[in-house]
Structures
1.
Amino acid sequence: MFSFRLFHKQNQGNSEFTASTLLQNQPQRSYGITSPVSLATPKDLDCIHTQKLVEALKPFGVFEDQQELNHRLVVLDKLSKLVKEWIMELGESKNLPPSAIASVGGKIFTFGSYKLGVHTKGADIDAVCVAPKHVERSDFFQSFFDKLKHQKQIKNLRAVEDAYVPVVKFEFDGIEIDLVFARVSMPTVSANLDLGDDSCLRSLDIRCVRSLNGCRVTDEILRLVPNKENFRLALRAIKLWAKRRGIYSNVLGFLGGVSWAMLVAKTCQLYPNALASVLVNKFFLVFSKWDWPNPVFLKQPGESDLNLPVWDPRVNPSDRYHVMPIITPAYPHQNSTYNVSASTRAVMVEEFKHGLAVTNEILQGKSDWSKLFEPLNFFQKYKHYIVLTASASTEGQHLEWVGLVESKIRVLVGNLERNEFITIAHVKPQSFPGNQELHNG
């Protein structure tokens, strides 16, 4: 595979894109597996196309203003204080010495789209509560959950303890937060704790490893892209495109946010000097022609003495059946796309080809960026389709129903694929409002 790194910088104080402001004379830094496809530097026309891309994205609410960003920081600061307060109270209840209670710490780390810097207006924040060794997972779901209950600014509080990565979900002063938990094998959690160090995984149970994995993967993705600003703008465009075309859903067998981020990061490594407009076009070029199921790696998987389970088809027979592997860059390396089926991959590859044709037109001046974000007309595309219905009486029940139904739909797709008379099973990951009278009945 390909992996390379070169630096150039976007002028933060100017919304206009010019080649002179986007490049710096910095030494090349090589990463990973092979050399880049092209080291071509931006042309003035690339800057114009990139500025037009920004303008096309704005109406879709993909950018937050500074006031909204500051509000998120305030909410995260309040949540961090709550966590530290709870950990100290827990230390007192467990009879820790006063000197230990004063220094136990505890910290909130963010990950996902917020940490990558590509979250949209109204998007939730993914975060992990990292606690010292005297704090048990049961404490998080009991005493901390109770503490959250008594906060006036917190609404829609619910716990999902039996999830693959157990999580507490809530709305804090208007910001939705998904908070997972990890207990490290240390007596204190310092303010400068480095989650990128593999040693922090030592002696942890697998649920804590999974909870930390989100942060470790997000940080590693950012470390492995040549230019963060170009990466972020290209990723915003690709995520919006994927949602508009109905192929953004990990649970339904398409790709989730981290998988899209890794594919865009890979494109950045292959074209380290390209601006976002070119990166979007090259993204479609690369992955419409990718020889699946050859895996996508951002870096060479490293060795570790921690003996945690990693994606390796040479060792794990089940890994050999993954049809579109995209491997996370942080240990323990995992396939982020194990839900992808033959049908959903075929749908995505078709969309990559369509995206390539559209962006070729855009860069040739024959179309504008709005064409890329036109939604798929699903019901004109096919003659035969199935409508599934489900309802719930409360918001909490609705969320449980959504998760249950989506997971069952993925199983249904797998069953349909095995029918010799069915060529492809294409799921539209969108819900529709039902008939209120039927619901009441």
2.
Amino acid sequence: MRATHLCFIVAALLLSLLRVRASTLELVKGFAATPDSSISSFQSFLVDPNGNFSFGFLRIQQSQLALAVLHVASSEPVWVANTSTTHWDDSTTLIFNGSVILSNSKTGTHWSTRSEGNRIVLRNNSNLQIQKFEEGDTGPSIPWQSFDFPSNTLIENQNFTVNMSLVNGAFSMKLGGNFIGLYTNFINQNHIYWKHTAMEAKASIIQGEGPIYARISQNGFLGTYQNEKAPVDVLPFNTFQRPISGLSLVRLESDGNLKSYYWNGSAWILDFTAITEDCELPNFCGQFAVCTPGNGCQCLNNRTEYHRPGDCTRHESQQGSTKSCTGYSIIRKTGVELPYKELMEFEKMGSLSECESDCERNCSCRGAVYNNGSGYCYRLDYEIGTLVGVGDEEKIGYFKMVRGEEGEEGVGFCCWGGVGCGGGVVGIGMAVFGVWRLWRRRREKMVMGNDGGCIGAYRDLGSASFRSIEMCKS
């Protein structure tokens, strides 16, 4: 009797465990969850059949929340929903009513799959799927899956198409007609800073036969294809032609670099780095900084002490309207060039002064770099990021700076953010400002002149490679 009773208890426990296990393998309509305040890192709702990946709430910096798929062994996110800022609190709710919806009772819907399905499952390859079953179907349809909306990571055997992008902050990876490109966003303009063009050694890209796509191979490379035949390009990793048993992924890092890793069972091993020189990264030292290979970072103005990215922006700022031509100072710096200049447009000019004048006349130009040897003039129509320090004094930079601190020289009377300045009050203000400015300049005994309608005041700052020119155009 006791043995029978014990068997019944064991059977009941096993059945209970199976039900718990089954409940974590799929989510059905009516599912709802809120963040659990007792959980400090990750709140799981769903696992794949092998237990390698999990879907749930990820806590970020204590108070922020992300909807993510994690690699369980490393607690590394491999997919994150593209949501706006969401707080880890009881007012946040995740529901599945055919669509997955992340909302907050105070701020409304933050993210939704905008789909219609019957259940959510997590596949062994980390692909989160919404599946729909119709009567008579031999299998489910897939109205939505995370593999179609990657965040900053591409997983082994996941197709990366021209309609997708990997995104990390201001950086993105996209496919072109015959290349893979890395881009950085400046004032809503994408600028390419790394490009890998298809070699077309084993197969050619044929016009009219569809766009290219990319996929990580188990043989240690990122392949580019136009169809399921031979790849039109192979970007090899360190493990090229040495198959590994662990998972491989490609990730766009927060510094804009593209790297590949594989899981060896206990750690992620670096397998590929797109940009091997730190100074060639778009903004390695931060804005208004110079990165010299082997010698670290320094601020462009030679005055501000550099400790970390962001230090150089304490005294300089370019925020505001790019259309403004007033209230800026000029920094000239020799021995500098632009990173990834091979991918930038340039114009051949006869002299440094011609290159500078071209930028000076263009209100949207933030700066220019001129090569006295080649005569190439590179114009910057975006915020000044990190420059590369070189030993060649023939390479000279010309940069417009808008002072960020109120009351400093160079601020002037400017209308930022695209707001027009007109009317009598503005006219009186400009007149008063002009009288005050003239008095101040005379007091400081500055040398004044007229250069093409622009009044310039030149001040030698005691450096052969640094000069500040305060300008204000009418």
3.
Amino acid sequence: MHLTPLLLPLLGLLAQTTQVDSAALTTQKLSNRIECQRTARNCPKGTILVSATDARAKYKTVQSAIDSLPNDDTTQTILILEGSYTEQLNVTRAGPITILGETDSPTDASKNKVNLNFAAANQDSTGTDDNTWYSVLVVAPTLDASLVGSGTTGFAVPADTPFGNRDFRVYNVDFDNDFAPYTDGPAAALMFSRANGGFYYCGFYSYQDTIYIGKLGNAYFYKSIIAGETDFLYGFGTAWIQSSDIKLRGCGGGLTAWKGTNTTFENKYGVYVVDSNIAAANSSIAPDIKGKCSLGRPWNSEHRSIFADTWEDGSILPAGYTHWISSGVDRFEEGITLMAEYQAYGPGFNRTARIEGGIDTLLTKSGYKEYSTPALVFQDQEGTFGDVSWIDWETVEGK
């Protein structure tokens, strides 16, 4: 089942259709962004607004607004007012893009008013189809760069593939793949490859494979909500999830399933969940999943995931992580696979069971130090660490 975006009626927005100036967003103050999201005033010059019903809006769908952006390095901003938008989004542009969702509560992802949704899952067992066809949002410079591929290594990305967007930002938008209310094949809300991007106060909802961070993908999530059941944080690249809520809709596989990628340089590709909360999605499911949910399983031996300073409710498996044995072969490899916690706490953290299980690494302060900030783990395509200029530190630091 290959997908054609469904263009359903959307709710209204104001619109300005003049060109955005190249420095508009990066110099926009936090207070201005918030006013823009609340009132559609004081937005960056040239902000494009989207609506199916408001006569002042030039574009009726979010994708049509994205397609209208010039193929250059100028900074572009799209503002979406309240509404549910049933469509798939595909972003290949390299120049900075920010997508703002209208909201009265810009610091609370649970009160988002903009929902981008699609209902589809990859149920193909032959390897012909790829998960990327079914995601609500795909950000990657090319189709080949966005493909997951099969097996423990996935598809090779052509050597001449450019790096994509270096500063992609989204605020207060929910991405919901509501194909089924249970695990029924990969149904991604987000697929993000070969790009740098920040998601602030956003929501990501699915059951299987909710968020995929592909090869050379660097993704930062701040005060967002991520909901899933099976392997719902997976990929090849690097994800840093800060001060967010991870909602367990059930227990299948694990929260994380990462594939390391062989490169010519040492890397720290993996998923880092920091200062966050992991809990059953609701009180009705909590008794059914108590003590059953794994923090992750290794998609290949180079899996790396760390839960640091994170609260875990009673849903978490006493041993923490689990093995992944395929065709009689355990994908966990001592000294290479890193499935770890640092100062995790809450009713789901059982130190004795973690040690006895022998698969969960309990890091010391010195062991965690090399992974302790985004600058220490995010890398460019040459393997250089330290470029985190694309993260909205003004929002994160509240200045």
4.
Amino acid sequence: MKLMMKMAALSLVFAGFGSAYAADAQCDQLQKQKALIYAAHGYCFKDADAKKKYGNDDCHTKKPKFSGPEADRLAQIESKQKELNCPKKDL
């Protein structure tokens, strides 16, 4: 019986790790989607990873203007990031 309880407890611990990993992967994916929208509008990135991936050679703004659907998608991304408790990252 004790062995079964230990195994059950371990499975809960490992399930938590799986959930944390899934959330981290989702956070990364959401951040990439957000950066792509910004990059498409010539945003000048501050984040080193974003600069490396998207570059700042053609950047021309710190305040891009987004279409209605883009603004809606960015709001969805930010809402999901908040829900997942993603680490706050500047672009």
